Amino acid sequence: VPVLTDLHLADGLLSLNEIRQEYEDMDSLGQYLSILESYGYSLNQLNNTMEHYSHDPEALDEIYEKVIAQLTEMEGEIKRNKKPIM
Fold this sequence. Notes:
Layout: H1 2-14, H2 17-22, H3 28-38, H4 43-54, H5 57-81
Protein name: DUF4296 domain-containing protein
InterPro entries: DUF4296
Domain DUF4296: 3-74
């Protein structure tokens, strides 16, 4: 779940114009590889795992419910810690 959470965070960040402009040479594949490597996984392992779970959609759905819960928790923490400008 943490790997998928980080992959989706990277996707979200790279979809922002400000981030893309700041890091023009950064692409999603490079970010994926960096994230996977930090967890000790390869792109091939991710692809094989996703292929496996594509044949078990209920299990994949359970995994993504946890990913969504983790992302929602992170969003809530950011909102709670956000301080007004004025």
